[in-house]
Amino acid sequence: MSDLVTLNIGPDIFTGWSEVAINRSIDTVAGSFELAIVDVWDDDEVIGLYPLQRCKLKVGDRSLITGYIDKQSPTITESNSAVQISGRCKTGDLVDCSSVSTPGEWKNASIEKIVRSVLNPQFGINLVIDADLSKKLNKFNVNFGESVFETISRACENTAILPLSTVDGDLLLTNVGSSRAHDDLFYGGNIDSASVDVDFTNRFSSYIIKGQKTGDGGTWNKQKTNNIYAESSDQYIDRYRPKGISADNQISNTLAKRRVDWEAQVRAGRSVSVKVELPTWEQSNGDLWRENLIVYTYIPRLRVDGDMVVREITYKLNGNNRRLSMSLVEPDIYAPEPKPVKKKSRKGKAVWLG
């Protein structure tokens, strides 16, 4: 079958899953999977699937995740036996492991140079570039104890560059909505069900960044200290809800303002998402639906009419029932030139967008 879900471990191929859930998102660098299979005992031995094994998860001949099994959970009952396994892309190591790069400080270095330095070759993860990484950072430091992914995310911050994983488990640096879906999404057509999730828990009335920057005072033993301060607001939050952010010690006031505008913009955009369910994993041309696609979405009863970006996608299989869940957000929330969040006219727009 062209849509058969297989787990490849070396020369061995495992299939016959009773349940499948495969998740990929533009907010997490590591795709993940959960698989379940029943009647797997053979002479009282559990099927040969164990944590730390390197694996490739495929749908037909198309790879979706290349990485490792993280967890195995065998279960027995009077009626049957089963095992559940879960794992992630190779890039999961970048989320778990600390950044111990040498050097740990760069001056006037490009994003590409910083990321390549942090991405230790021992991880066995290649860097795939599909964006302009030439922008230079005046000064950048690794914060002790932070993960490799956190370091890379900070380097890419405010640039609309997303660190994602490829189907081969490598690190991809790309732009938001780097490609367009072949199909549109429309209720009554390929969408079975749709909903809007509005959650303002992580939105604040104001975002304030403070810190100090130590600069050259003109002599070898004299330094000048400048206070860093910037503020941005979200005009939709009409009660007092401030959010403080600690400034990097080398940030300028200009960059600080950009930082808080970005924080307000992204938090506002993530607070509203459109969720849709489809009965198939594939578009009409045979391509799998994927995260980070730009797709025109039309759901008139929810007053959704326009381009959205696929923020998160989950491929699900239960027995023979195949489903696809997608979370969609407006693509401009990741725009590289952030602006304060201001109220807009509601004419022609969904009420939940303001």
Tell me what you see in this structure.
This protein is mostly beta strands. The chain folds into 4 domains: 5-89, Phage tail proteins - horseshoe like beta roll fold (Roll); 94-175, Phage tail protein beta-alpha-beta fold; 179-199 and 271-353, Phage tail proteins - horseshoe like beta roll fold (Roll); 206-270, Phage tail proteins - 2 layer sandwich fold, CATH 3.30.1920. It is 11% helix and 44% strand. It is built from 4 helices and 22 strands. The chain has helices at residues 92-96, 111-118, 148-156, 253-270, and strands spanning 5-9, 12-14, 19-25, 32-38, 54-59, 62-76, 81-89, 105-110, 127-130, 136-141, 161-165, 171-175, 179-180, 185-186, 193-198, 206-219, 222-233, 242-246, 272-278, 293-299, 304-318, 321-329. Strands 1, 2, 3, 4, 5, 6, 7, 13, 14, 15, 19, 20, 21 and 22 form a 14-stranded mixed β-sheet that branches. A 3-stranded mixed β-sheet has the order 9-12-11, covered by helices on one side. The longest helix has 18 residues, at 253-270. Mean pLDDT is 87; it is low at 350-354.
